[in-house]
Each structure stands twice: as structure tokens, then as C-alpha cells.
Recover the amino acids of this structure.
């Protein structure tokens, strides 16, 4: 694809090693985000993020409204959960996450009115601590897919000397187009979110990094940056469209040339990486005080009748979202929450979508088939594809024989399970599964 | 909306490249076809018979050894076809068929399956067979058919390598050294009009195969380039910077066949770039040393097999450090 870098847009400092050229399937790119009809019932699992689960703070029979806290905890690495509809709490108890994991959850029957909680007001921020606290209260977790509580990221100690805020709009997963739509439809909130983070966290440089297959996103953001007169400190950057460009460590490397050492965080090399939708949310939240009660997601795949980008209240069941998109046009064989590279296959459509869920993809038979696993022929495609310079074929072997020493030496814990190795394996090996096996082998050994 | 049907679940990723082992092997077979056509043209229909028998024996040997060893069937991955073709390419057209078949069984059963089958053999099966055949049937393996003599009466002749070796041994090399010798012209060498094993003679056909493999991204140019490059440098110096000498060496024997199709065998070559360079250069140096100083006229198969054996060690030395690992030197510097 020929792409001319617009004037004033930076080029990536360093290219990602390896990676794979996946087919993009960005079918929904030109479809504006539409609001789903308010759901009749929502299920809010208390574990929608990485970290400590929340405890329900409502009981059966309580009347709640949109934006009211229904789950919270005093643990630091966590984020409160808010009701996304108004109505009555009908159950508090065990529910299934899309992954099948059972966690506590709150089920709310909607009264259809979508009444706003009267306590909602824009947060008053006067210090850095106020800002971080406000972000915690918003319930924001990384909207790019990982679901790490954002306030934890923002509460970095001052001595980390963070000098660059990298806004991740790479969206390297196939099919998903919500970050792209965010750039087009919500650019004002993105910029104001960035400005607030710059102000309160004292970060001098900002880079918004986008893959070069989304030229219109550059234009939209450039226009708005001009309007806000922030062209000088908010820079746009093009990245090569290669998966997994949007992974945090890859992002830091592309944007600044710095490499995050194994076991370290971007903050250790002076960077803060944030998903573009998360940044836009901060912009909107600081203005309105409306917590994270809905999010945009892409609904696509060969089994979906009318692919769409939809804005969905958190906790809506996957089946209701698919129904809003016209239902199935073919019998689905596999339904994913998230993208095809790192998303999770769900076991049922009767599970709620959660905060970190950026897509629902349903595939008909034949589109989600696995290759039959054969013997490794040592072609080296996995090692070439690995952006972390690992040797998946060796890791598989060491994991199977339980060679912990070699696994540690080869750096198994650097693996982020991006799936590039398994994608490129001609022998159809489920290498991500083997990577997980290897990690658990190492974990078990460390316990002893 | 309740689905009656059970959804299938699996670990990510849910999308996969179209590459399969069978497709890769098929690509190698396709890349070998130009050389086969050239060989039929040069050495006659007997070439086809030798190739077909060799491929057939390999496939049957693979099929039955998997059954006897109670392992899952792998005959469908076409790797036995590749081995069969390569073995045929490594023998003279006049080779008795039973010898070829013996070699095929040796390659598949002893070299490949006894070590665990595809991906597990530590040396290239076709090359191990070539060496076994040279050791067992030295005369038959050196009875080279002269090209285009199959229509009337098959004639055998010396391989150009032996003649080149004599030239090298007879002292200083200049362009005049090649005059009046029993050598095909360089153009004939390039087109394959010379004596040799049936698949190694036609340089142009081998290069077409190389281009196909590169275009299909089955192999990378690293190993062939490192191999032929390092070989050429040594030969250029050894030959007193004589280009004719260099050209004869590159085009004769099994150098191109070895560099393109044997040294690049996935199972018996390193995975990483650095390792591939070391491997390729090692092959080039050993081939050159054998050709210059050894008693054997040809060194390609021994060079590759020797380097095959070293692959685990090369691999060990060249395993890349995981992303972001800070070099120990730098850590020390930072501490100071």
C-alpha cells in the first residue's frame, strides 16, 4: 500500500523486529459508532480488570442508576465498577466471565429509563493526586484490551522521570476498528485528555502513534491539534502496519527507540503508553464526570449479518449485541471476545461483555479452523516472527521436558503471547499454548 | 438467543498463515522440476526412471517405517518425495536401480525415521545417502554419463572436477592453463552440457529453482550466499585471482545443488541469521579445502554433513538474547 507520510508527521524511530503480516479485514472502518438499544438486563462481573476483584456494594432489591458504584475495593490495583443502566439489582452472586472464569457479579434488570446517577459531577482536580484519584473513581481500565487499571499506571513515582506519553492508536489486531473511529469521531476528547495528562503528570512530550494504513486518522488528529494549538508538543507518528505493532513494548521501541528490559515496565525507560480510547475517555470524564459505563466495540466476522461498530453499556450480554447486529447469517463455529490474534474464544453467547472487550467476532465453519498439528520441521518461521527475539520451537521442547534452567535463560517470561509464532507455524503447532505451558512450568519450579 | 450448538474454543491466535508443511515440501519439489527436465533432456529417459524409482522407494519406505514404528503417518507431507528426488539428483543416470533403492531405504529408515522422522534427523538424509553410496559403490558413483549420448550409445566420461584438480596441481594458473584440456566450455557448464550426477549439472535450472524458492519465501538467500560467497573468495585467492578457474569451480560438481537445496534443509541448518552465516561460511570453507587439498575431487556433501553435525553448537552460540536484554558489558559500565 502506498502511503505518503503527511507533513509534520514523524517516522517511527525504530522498526519492530519480526512480527507477521496479517490480513487486516478492517471491514467496519467506515462505519460510525452507533448506540445499541438499552439492554433489558446487564451482568457486571466484579473482575473486569487485571488486579484485585471488587466487592459488590449493592444488594438484591436495591434501585441503582447509571453511573452508580456497584462494586469497589480498597485494594490499589483495581478499579470500581459502575452500573450501566438504571433499574433493580436482581442477583448478586457467581457469574461467568467471557473466559469461563467464575467471579462474583451483580445482575441488574433495567427499567428502560437510563436515569443518570445524581451524584455525577465533573471531578475537581487541583493536584496530581486528585487527578489520579479521579481516574480511579472513573473506573477506567486500559481500553485497548489488556484491562490494566489506568490510575495505577498514572501513579508512577516522580523519580521515574517520565518524559514521553505515547498514545497507542496502532490497532494492529485485524478486524477491530474502534480506535480508528475514536480518532475520527472523538478527536477533541483525545486531545483534551492528553492535555490533562500532560498538565498533571508533567510529561513534556506526547506522541500519537498510528499504523500507516489509517491515513484519515492522521488528518483528523492533525486538524484538531491545529485547532487546539498543540502541534508543537503533541506529535503524530506513523508506524509500519505489522502485527504486533500495538504491543506496549513494541510501541515504546517504535516511538522512542528505547527497549524495555525483561520484567520491566515502560515507566522504567521513561515512557507512559496509553490506548487512544482511554485518553479520550479521560478527556470526557474530566469534563462530565460520567464514569466508564459504556464502550465502543467492533462486531464483525463471517457469521455476523450486519457488522457494526457499536457503543455498548458494560455488562450487556454478547447475544444481545450480536442480535443488534442482525444476528447470525451463518451458524457460528467460533465466537471471539477481542481480536483474532489475542482474543479469547467464548464458550457461550450468554456471557457479558466487559470493560476491556474491544470486539466480538463470530466466524462460520471454515473461517476459524485450526491446522492439524504436525511435527516441527525447524523452518524457523516462529523465531523470525517473534518480536521479542525468542525461539518458540526451543521453548516448546524445553517446556515438554521441564527444563526450567534453559527456559529462564532463553527468556520465556518476556513472551507476551502475541501469537505471531503460532500464526506463522506451518506445522500448525499451538505455540501460544506451549508458551503458557512453559511459563507455568517455570512458575511451578519457582514455588518449590 | 440461545445457541443449541456448542461453540468451539481454542487458545489464541485464531487466524493462521496459509503455510503448511506439505505446501513447503511441494514448493521444493516444484523448484526441483526445472533441473529434472534439464536432466531428462541431457541424459535421456533413464533419468526419469531413476527419479521415479527413487521417489517411489522413499515414499514406500516412509509409509512402512511409520507403521512399523507405530507413529502417526507422515507420508502425506511430501518430505519423502523431496528426499527421493534429491537422492536421484545425486547419482549418475547409469546407476543400477537396486543401488538407488538401497540408498533410498538407508536415507528414510536409518537417517530419518530412526532419529524420529521429519524435523529430527541430524544430517541431511540425501547427503548421507550420497556418502554411503560413494563409500559402497565408488566406481558406479563415478561413472558419469556424457550428455546427449543416450540416443545412440551411452558413453561415460570423467567429471570436469577431476580435470580442474589436475590443472590446479600442475602449477600456476592462467587462462592458458585451460586451453587444450578435456573441459566443456563455461557456457556449456552453465547450461549443464557436462558430465555429472543427474540433477547437479544444469546451473541455470538450479538457479531458476532458487529464484522460485526465494519468491515463495521457502528459503532465504543467507545460506546459499554465505556458502557460495565464502567458497568463491577462497577459490579466487587459491586460483591466483583467475576468474576462469573460479567459474569452473562454482559451476562444477554439486556446489549449486548443495548450496541451494541441501544446505538450506530446515532440519539440518541453523534457524537464526547469524547461525546461518556461520553455517554457510563453514560449508564454503570445507568444500574449498577438500577441493583444493583433498584426495576426493568433490567436497560438497562432506562439507554440508560436517556442518550439519555442528548445527546444535552453532545454534547454541547464536541464540538471540530476549528483547530488551541489556548486554553484560553495558551493565558493568553503568555500575562503574
Amino acid at each position: 500500500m502506498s502511503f505518503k507520510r503527511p507533513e509534520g508527521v514523524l517516522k517511527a524511530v525504530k522498526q519492530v523486529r519480526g512480527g507477521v503480516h496479517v490480513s487486516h479485514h478492517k471491514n467496519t472502518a467506515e462505519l460510525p459508532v452507533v448506540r445499541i438499544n438499552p439492554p433489558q438486563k446487564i451482568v457486571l462481573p466484579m473482575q473486569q480488570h487485571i488486579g484485585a476483584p471488587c466487592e459488590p456494594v449493592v444488594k438484591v432489591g436495591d434501585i441503582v442508576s447509571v453511573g452508580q458504584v456497584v462494586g469497589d475495593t480498597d485494594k490499589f490495583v483495581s478499579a470500581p465498577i459502575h452500573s450501566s443502566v438504571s433499574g433493580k439489582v436482581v442477583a448478586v452472586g457467581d457469574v461467568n466471565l467471557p473466559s469461563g472464569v467464575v467471579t462474583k457479579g451483580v445482575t441488574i434488570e433495567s427499567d428502560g429509563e437510563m436515569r443518570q446517577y445524581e451524584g455525577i459531577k465533573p471531578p475537581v482536580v487541583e493536584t496530581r493526586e486528585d487527578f489520579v484519584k479521579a481516574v480511579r473513581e472513573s473506573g477506567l481500565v486500559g481500553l485497548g484490551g489488556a484491562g490494566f487499571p489506568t490510575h495505577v499506571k498514572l501513579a508512577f513515582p516522580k523519580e521515574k522521570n517520565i518524559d514521553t506519553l505515547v498514545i497507542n492508536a496502532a490497532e494492529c489486531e485485524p478486524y477491530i476498528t474502534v480506535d480508528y473511529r475514536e480518532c475520527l469521531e472523538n478527536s477533541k476528547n483525545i486531545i483534551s485528555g492528553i492535555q490533562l495528562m500532560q498538565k498533571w503528570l508533567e510529561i513534556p512530550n506526547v506522541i500519537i502513534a498510528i499504523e500507516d494504513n489509517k491515513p484519515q486518522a492522521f488528518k483528523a488528529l492533525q486538524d484538531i491539534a491545529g485547532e487546539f494549538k498543540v502541534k508543537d508538543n503533541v506529535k503524530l507518528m506513523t508506524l509500519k502496519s505489522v502485527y504486533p505493532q500495538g504491543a506496549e513494548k513494541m510501541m515504546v521501541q517504535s516511538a522512542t527507540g528505547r527497549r524495555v528490559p525483561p520484567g520491566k515496565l515502560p515507566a522504567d525507560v521513561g515512557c507512559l503508553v496509553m490506548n487512544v480510547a482511554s485518553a479520550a475517555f479521560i478527556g470526557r470524564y474530566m469534563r462530565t464526570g460520567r464514569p466508564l459505563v459504556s464502550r465502543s466495540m467492533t462486531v464483525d466476522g463471517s457469521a455476523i449479518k450486519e457488522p457494526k461498530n457499536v457503543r455498548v453499556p458494560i455488562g450487556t450480554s454478547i447475544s444481545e449485541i450480536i442480535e443488534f447486529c442482525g444476528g447470525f447469517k451463518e451458524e457460528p463455529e467460533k465466537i471471539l471476545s477481542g481480536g483474532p490474534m489475542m482474543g479469547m474464544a467464548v464458550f457461550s453467547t450468554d456471557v457479558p461483555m466487559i470493560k476491556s472487550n474491544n470486539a466480538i467476532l463470530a466466524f462460520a465453519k471454515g473461517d476459524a479452523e485450526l491446522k492439524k498439528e504436525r511435527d516441527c520441521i525447524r523452518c524457523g518461521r516462529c523465531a523470525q516472527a517473534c518480536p521479542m527475539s525468542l525461539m518458540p520451537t526451543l521453548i516448546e521442547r524445553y517446556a515438554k521436558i521441564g527444563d526450567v534452567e534453559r527456559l529462564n535463560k532463553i527468556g520465556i517470561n518476556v513472551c507476551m503471547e502475541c501469537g505471531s509464532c503460532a500464526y506463522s507455524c506451518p506445522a500448525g503447532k499451538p505455540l501460544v499454548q506451549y508458551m503458557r505451558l512453559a511459563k507455568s512450568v517455570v512458575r511451578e519450579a519457582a514455588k518449590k | 438467543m440461545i445457541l443449541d450448538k456448542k461453540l468451539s474454543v481454542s487458545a489464541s491466535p485464531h487466524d493462521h498463515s496459509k503455510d503448511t508443511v506439505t505446501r513447503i515440501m511441494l514448493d521444493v519439489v516444484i523448484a526441483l522440476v526445472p533441473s529434472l527436465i534439464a536432466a531428462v533432456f541431457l541424459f535421456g529417459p533413464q533419468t526419469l526412471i531413476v527419479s521415479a524409482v527413487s521417489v517411489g522407494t522413499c515414499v514406500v519406505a516412509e509409509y512402512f517405517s511409520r507403521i512399523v514404528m507405530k507413529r502417526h503417518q507422515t507420508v502425506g507431507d511430501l518430505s519423502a518425495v523431496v528426499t527421493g528426488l534429491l537422492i536421484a539428483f545425486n547419482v549418475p543416470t547409469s546407476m543400477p536401480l537396486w543401488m538407488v533403492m538401497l540408498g533410498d531405504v538407508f536415507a528414510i529408515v536409518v537417517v530419518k525415521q530412526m532419529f524420529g522422522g521429519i524435523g529430527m534427523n541430524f544430517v541431511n538424509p540425501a547427503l548421507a545417502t550420497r556418502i554411503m553410496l560413494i563409500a559402497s559403490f565408488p566406481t558406479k558413483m563415478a561413472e558419469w554419463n556424457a550428455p546427449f549420448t543416450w540416443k545412440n550409445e551411452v558413453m561415460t566420461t570423467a567429471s570436469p572436477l577431476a580435470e580442474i584438480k589436475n590443472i590446479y596441481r600442475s602449477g600456476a594458473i592462467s587462462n592458458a592453463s585451460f586451453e587444450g584440456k578435456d573441459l566443456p566450455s563455461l557456457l556449456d557448464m552453465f547450461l549443464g552440457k557436462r558430465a555429472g550426477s543427474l540433477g547437479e549439472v544444469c546451473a541455470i535450472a538450479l538457479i531458476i529453482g532458487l529464484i522460485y524458492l526465494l519468491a515463495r519465501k521457502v528459503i532465504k538467500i543467507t545460506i546459499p550466499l554465505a556458502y557460495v560467497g565464502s567458497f568463491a573468495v577462497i577459490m579466487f585467492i587459491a586460483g591466483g585471482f583467475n576468474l576462469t578457474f573460479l567459474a569452473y569451480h562454482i559451476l562444477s560438481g554439486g556446489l549449486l545443488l548443495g548450496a541451494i537445496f541441501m544446505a538450506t534443509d530446515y532440519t539440518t541448518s541453523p534457524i537464526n541469521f547469524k547461525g546461518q552465516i556461520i553455517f554457510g561460511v563453514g560449508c564454503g570453507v570445507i568444500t574449498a579445502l577438500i577441493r583444493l587439498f583433498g584426495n576426493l575431487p568433490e567436497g560438497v556433501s562432506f562439507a554440508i554433513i560436517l556442518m550439519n553435525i555442528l548445527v546444535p553448537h552453532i545454534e547454541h552460540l547464536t541464540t538471540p538474547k530476549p528483547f530488551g536484554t541489556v548486554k553484560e558489558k553495558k551493565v558493568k559500565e553503568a555500575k562503574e
User: Anything to note?
Assistant: Chain A touches chain B through 69 residues (CB under 8 Å). DSSP finds 13 helices and 18 strands in chain A. The CA atoms of residues 412 and 439 of chain A lie 7 Å apart.
